[in-house]
Design goal:
- The chain is mainly alpha-helical.
- It has one domain: P-loop containing nucleotide triphosphate hydrolases (Rossmann fold, 3-Layer(aba) Sandwich), CATH 3.40.50.300.
- It contains 18 helices and 4 strands.
- Helix 12 packs across helix 13.
């Protein structure tokens, strides 16, 4: 993996562009203003954007009472480790606009302002979002379904994603993957921020939400405390491929968000540890999900027969309306015919051995060849 400072001058594809000034100041204080000089220009851009976002926040306050009074209907959560196909599955479900709404890219990075600013700013600042995701060339724009983890990250400042911007404090932010070792006040702050964001989405769309964030895979207990009637679908993929694809993600997308020089020599070890922590929590908490509210899908099955696998999902989760949804789903899957996913070479035996030893439960549980 290269040690060069890739995309050093980029201000694109940075979720912090949607933060308000008050939250940005708190985040800087928490990290003792430790921005490396090579990224001062990026911090200056975020600072300027945060002032504009704070102006938008004042306009947003007219919705406060209506949002606070909104009840969030039981969501459908897409679970799965990063690079297992969660985005593909989320995009498929998001086509059912008769039944579901979803958080888009603009909304998750502008959580305090999107009700007031999305219509204008999603056009004005479209250049900030590349047309293809850096790590896998999937189409991307402000209207694309997006993982909502960014929203509570920007408002509660409790998220493992903040460790990408401030890699020297990654260990501190890792506690927010499962929240098991986080202080109770931090847990409540995150839950409050997350619920408030979902209330805003529900107020806007008046439909149940289909939500996707890989960290949720390690938070089933928390999610059930908040939404006892929630449904869950989990997607899994060959662990060797997940390791290679996640390593590629760190060598592409994350370079757009660093505010401190990363120690790239530690990335593989962190990938291995994070996967283990996530699935330790998942396997322990999965039995908490009531019968009829959980379904699991294999990435290769979904890739081979997306319509058939979606029909199974709807049946297993007792979702209605598949017949009406199917023509739209078929049109969408046909539109993906030219997409080509990344190809990785053979994984060196040293890393193959570590993956199969440290992630052995995934191989055995889902019958992946070692």
């Amino acid at each position: 993996m290269s040690h060069a400072l890739k995309h050093r001058w980029s201000v694109q594809h940075n979720y912090l562009a949607g933060i308000t000034f008050g939250d940005w100041w708190r985040l800087l204080q928490e990290n003792r203003f430790a921005i490396d000089p090579v990224y001062w220009h990026r911090a200056a851009f975020i600072s300027a954007a945060s002032l504009m976002n704070s102006w938008g926040q004042r306009q947003e306050r007219r919705f406060d009472d209506a949002v606070t009074g909104t009840t969030v209907q039981a969501p459908l959560f897409v679970l799965g480790h990063w690079r297992t196909g969660t985005t593909h599955l989320h995009n498929l479900l998001a086509q059912d606009t008769d039944q579901f709404a979803f958080a888009n890219t603009y909304q998750v990075v502008n959580p305090r302002t999107f009700l007031s600013t999305e219509a204008v700013n999603s056009r004005r600042f479209a250049w900030l979002v590349p047309s293809r995701r850096p790590m896998d060339n999937m189409a991307l724009n402000f209207q694309s379904p997006q993982e909502e983890e960014f929203a509570p990250a920007l408002t509660s400042l409790r998220s493992p994603y903040l460790g990408i911007s401030f890699p020297r404090r990654e260990d501190h932010y890792d506690r927010y993957l499962t929240f098991r070792d986080a202080p109770p006040a931090d847990v409540e702050a995150w839950k409050s921020a997350f619920r408030w964001f979902l209330q805003k989405l529900t107020f806007k769309y008046q439909r149940p939400l289909v939500l996707k964030s890989p960290p949720h895979t390690a938070r089933i207990r928390l999610l059930l405390e908040m939404f006892p009637d929630a449904r869950f679908v989990h997607i899994h993929r060959d662990p060797y491929t997940v390791f290679q694809s996640f390593r590629h993600y760190f060598d592409t997308a994350t370079w757009h968000t660093y505010l401190q020089r990363p120690n790239v020599s530690q990335i593989e070890d962190r990938i291995l540890r994070r996967y283990t922590a996530l699935y330790d929590a998942y396997f322990e908490e999965r039995p908490l999900i009531p019968a009829g509210r959980f379904h699991e899908v294999r990435f290769t099955d979904l890739e081979r027969d997306p319509v058939g696998e979606m029909q199974k999902l709807y049946r297993q989760l007792n979702l209605t309306g598949f017949e009406q949804f199917c023509p739209r789903l078929e049109r969408y899957t046909a539109s993906l015919s030219d997409y080509r996913k990344n190809e990785f070479g053979d994984l060196p035996e040293t890393w193959r051995q570590r993956v199969r030893v440290e992630w052995h439960r995934s191989f055995s549980t889902w019958n992946y060849p070692i």
